[in-house]
Write a structure and sequence with these properties.
81% helix, 7 helices
Length: 168
């Protein structure tokens, strides 16, 4: 494996470490901060592998997470128009990137946007599960193997959190 492919894989390992604990956190703010940090590294990972749609999606996600953190700290839901705005921006970026598996990105991104606007963490976790499965498949198409591994590990972590914090 040449250096240009090794560096993104190493970035992916750091992302794995960060994302492994995120679904286990008890607050949406903690989850958002972990994912914000991880997405900054994901931008570089996807960009270096030529997955422009994935990099653009990660940038939009970073901006969205920065907007959501103040609402999360106050335990409030962001206004609905912000969800619609970020959904439209996401669709635009993915469409304009002319990325091959854009449908995987789009489905995962929409589930994530919907989940982060929920006040019920159980719904947020289910949406996160759908998101990580979609992004895992996308990562495999660009040989972002550590990215796909990260998504698989996150899926397991989310399933553990769903079981741990299950609603009876």
């Amino acid at each position: 494996m040449d250096d240009i492919k090794l560096i993104p894989q190493l970035l992916g390992l750091v992302v794995i470490a960060i994302c492994l604990i995120a679904p286990q956190l008890k607050t949406k703010t903690g989850i958002l901060i972990c994912h914000l940090t991880a997405n900054i590294l994901v931008v570089f990972q996807f960009w270096m592998l030529g997955a422009i749609g994935g990099a653009l999606l990660a940038i939009v996600t970073i901006i969205r997470q920065i907007v959501l953190i103040p609402y999360s700290v106050k335990d409030k839901t962001a206004p609905g128009w912000t969800m619609l705005l970020f959904a439209a921006i996401t669709v635009g970026c993915i469409t304009l990137s002319f990325d091959r598996p854009a449908d995987l990105l789009l489905l995962g991104a929409m589930a994530n946007i919907y989940g982060m606007w929920q006040n019920r963490l159980n719904v947020t976790r289910w949406c996160l599960l759908f998101t990580v499965l979609s992004l895992g498949a996308y990562s495999l198409t660009y040989m972002a193997y550590t990215g796909a591994l990260n998504e698989f590990i996150q899926a397991v972590s989310v399933l553990v959190a769903l079981w741990r914090y299950r609603v009876n």
